[in-house]
Amino acid sequence: MKLVARPWFDASAVANDLAPIATEPSPMLPGDWRSLRPVVERGKCVKCAVCWLYCPVQCVVEKARWFDFDLATCKGCGICAQECPQRAIVMVEEAA
Prior knowledge:
Layout: E1 36-40, H1 50-54, E2 60-62, E3 67-69, H2 79-83, E4 89-93
């Protein structure tokens, strides 16, 4: 028996009145829709890297004496602030 490769998904079988299939990546970044953003209190940060370990999108950036955040990719989930053992990260409301 010969194996035949088939496509994973046949778009021709989808009705035209359903949601369209994404064919181009969206230029929107998570930072474009964030409502809260993390702010590091530099005096409290001991650079333990717990925020870096727990960040789901890896937006934590290492500085000389503390960690900071790449706000273009940060989605504002607050996991970094929740997990920080020094409570050096606070979530503030995003300015409009």
